[in-house]
Amino acid sequence: MIRRPAGLVRSRAARGLAWGLVILAVILVGAFFARQGSPSAAAGISPQEATATTPQASGVSAIRFTAGGDVGTTSASDASWQKVADFGGDFHLLLGDLSYSDIEPEDAWCADVISKVGAGVPIQLVSGNHEDDGSDDGHINNFAACLPDRMNSTGIYAAEYYFDVGTEARVIMIAPDLTIDGEDYDYEVGNPHYDWLAAAIDGARAAGVEWIVVGMHKTCITAGNKSCEIGPDLMDLLIDRRVDLVLQGHDHDYQRSKQLTCAEVDVFVASCVADDGADDAYAKGRGTVFVIAGNFGGSGFTGIDRSDPEFAYMAAAMGDGDDPSGRGLLQIEIDSGGLRLEFVGSTTDYSDGFVIGPSATAGTANCSAVPARGVPSEVRAPAAISRGYLKANQRIGSATVRRANGIDRWLNAGILDGDLCGGSLEPADLDSNVTVTSGPLGPTPPRANPRTVAIAPASQRNAAFSATAIQMCINQRIYQTGIARANALKARLAGRLTGGDVVDGTLTRGRLGRDVTITAASAPPSLPAASRTKVTAPARQGCGKVKFTGAQAAVNRRIAIASVVRINETLDQLSAGLTGENFKDGTITKVDFAPGVTP
Ligand SMILES: [Fe+2]
């Protein structure tokens, strides 16, 4: 069993508590309306992560490499080696299980591989269970002699080592649950191997290395035919340290996990999933993605057990019996746009791929950080209703109305390029007369830089205000109006915006998804209409039924606060930047794009 980090549970409980406070709160109006906290804290980005993105901006060239395990010498592995040669990456990670004695001895197998790949691509080894101590298929030391380390690695090559590629990536290779030269490579809390790995990960973070990839032969969470052989302590360490990507073999199939913050053997825990990966995009730093690719070509081809509870941890899987299915390998690119992984079939048309985005923002969209707002404190009922208490209630309620009106004006004025997060428009958002291709990642998209929402100042004309039941009734109608408008704006922003809301000729290339290129475009026969804020008029009841009590005044205040919280959420959404999610699918047309973006 793999332990679930207690922090996950705690943070959820804390969030629930915070919301409870919102509902039960008294406010000092001014303090509540102000924003507090630093932008980086609000966005969940540590200072270290923030600075670690700096090398990307300097235009460091991409890292390109391939990976795969369970190789042998077969027509399928020959086809996979051809893909490795064609890709011509900076190195290839061989994830264990090498010759299966298809060619003996070890140096003859190495020579065969080199003859297929060429000498230009370093092949970095780690042992599988077919070449550790006592295996009949050769010994890892003999393979390491003929396919030696070529990446200037630190540690024990082919058993427990790492190498850096600039400050962009650290690749760590380990051989858990295997015995090499009499040494048991077990990773248990507090033992030397565990400590070595923790130090290798922490050292990379401390040095500002952007990406951490850990490769090994054996697996833990899998819907193939293997079990958690690497052990829960290692699995927890990889996840708790937020290793970006873990590559494994051993299961002779292909599996790509969801992005995980925890995992439990034989039990699917939904709250462990930070991102289900259904859109093939993960945000960096939210969790760990595991990829099993033990189907390079050697030995038998195995199937996926979709009734295995651990299958629910997977975002994609392919094995024997699936259609299409077959052998292949991983192609991985890391650049300023993130980490992009593709499974490329050598004997199958099956394909899969994903991006781990470059920053801790949603997907690959580059949104602005929004500072956290203060949380209002507890609401207490007044001993007696005072003019001041009712007046404060009215001010809170009218703040919602003024904010809602400001947002409505903001939307109706026409959406500009900077109002959208960079990289946020996906093919589904585009009109069918716009044709796109998905290709290599473009440069890091620009951040959203939204227009300010102009909010009218509070009216100071309240000389006639008095503490009466009628005034309380008027206040209640103000809250109702505010809530109705806040709800209407939320609905409009929940996928009802259209290209008709966008000022023509404004959207730049940077708003498109980073892998999206427009290849052809024409204006549709009719352009989509702009959206409207559709307010449902609140039901009115007579003022004669209003309870003129302190308890009712406190209830009113809670309602007023809740309405401000609701409208503030929408304000924060606009401050972060709009994304394709705010738009109705298929409504961004050629006319919305700036000259030159479309052919
Ligand atoms: Fe194997």
Characterize this entry briefly:
This protein is an alpha/beta fold and about 600 residues long. The chain has helices spanning about 5-25, 30-35, 40, 45-50, 55, 75-85, 105-115, 140-145, 190-205, 230-240, 385-410, 470-495, 550-575, and strands at about 25, 65-70, 90-95, 125, 155, 160-165, 170-175, 180, 185, 210-215, 245-250, 255, 260, 275, 280, 290-295, 315-320, 330-335, 340-345, 350-355, 375-380, 435-440, 515-520. Helix 7 crosses helix 8 and helix 12 (about 470-495) packs parallel to helix 13.
| Architecture per CATH nomenclature, i.e. the level-2 architecture of the largest domain | 4-Layer Sandwich
Count of DSSP strands: 23
Question: What is the CATH H-level superfamily of the largest domain?
Answer: Metallo-dependent phosphatases
Neighbour order of strands in the largest sheet: 5-6-7-10-11-16-12-17
Radius of gyration: 29 Å
Proportion of beta-strand residues = 15-25%
The shape is elongated
Residue ranges: pLDDT <50 for 5 or more in a row?
1-60, 359-363
Percent of residues in helices:
25-40%
Quick one: CATH class of the largest domain?
Answer: Alpha Beta
Oligomer: single chain
Return the CATH topology of the largest domain.
Purple Acid Phosphatase, chain A, domain 2
Largest sheet: 8 strands, mixed
The DSSP helix count reads 13
The overall number of domains is 2
Distance between the termini: 55 Å
Bound molecules: fe (ii) ion
Rounded average pLDDT: 86
Based on helices, strands and strand pairing, what is the structural class? alpha/beta
